Automatic annotation (TrEMBL):
The lineage of its organism: Bacteria, Bacillati, Bacillota, Bacilli, Bacillales. It comes from the Bacteria. This is Uncharacterized protein.
Length: 136
């Protein structure tokens, strides 16, 4: 059987807690002086990108983004994703039109780059739309 003992008083355990508590407070103060802007940037990134993608739930915004990607309209994409994100380049994959978007957060200490691809309407854009061998 196991027995639990309860010890009270001014023993070693109590002094050790005070010493380690002082060290923790000093440690926390030390880190406040050296803030990591990348952590701040990642937090901003989460909030900003979730807001931007939430806008795309509206059909008109989604249509606008799809049209901008298909027509390589950099200005329209930049307006949808606001000032922190920019359309870097447009490219095509077989059967898809794509855009590469880069966003900067946290005083330039955190970057995210992502691609958005939509099905191409033109099946003869140098790739035959990815449909060969008489499938379509």
């Amino acid at each position: 059987m196991s027995a639990k003992a309860k010890i009270s008083g001014l023993g070693k355990g109590r002094r050790a807690v005070l010493v380690s508590g002082d060290r923790r407070r000093h440690h926390r103060r030390h880190h406040r002086r050296h803030e990591d802007f990348a952590v701040e940037g990642i937090q901003e990134m989460g909030a900003d990108l979730s807001r931007s993608f939430a806008k795309l739930r509206k059909r008109c915004k989604a249509r606008r983004l799809v049209a901008a990607i298909r027509h390589c309209d950099r200005r329209a994409i930049n307006e949808i994703f606001e000032w922190r994100c920019r359309a870097i380049c447009f490219f095509r994959k077989p059967g898809f039109d794509c855009v590469k978007i880069s966003c900067c957060f946290g005083r330039g200490s955190a970057f995210v780059t992502f691609d958005i691809c939509v099905r191409s309407l033109n099946r003869c854009c140098g790739f035959d739309g990815g449909f060969r061998n008489g499938f379509f």
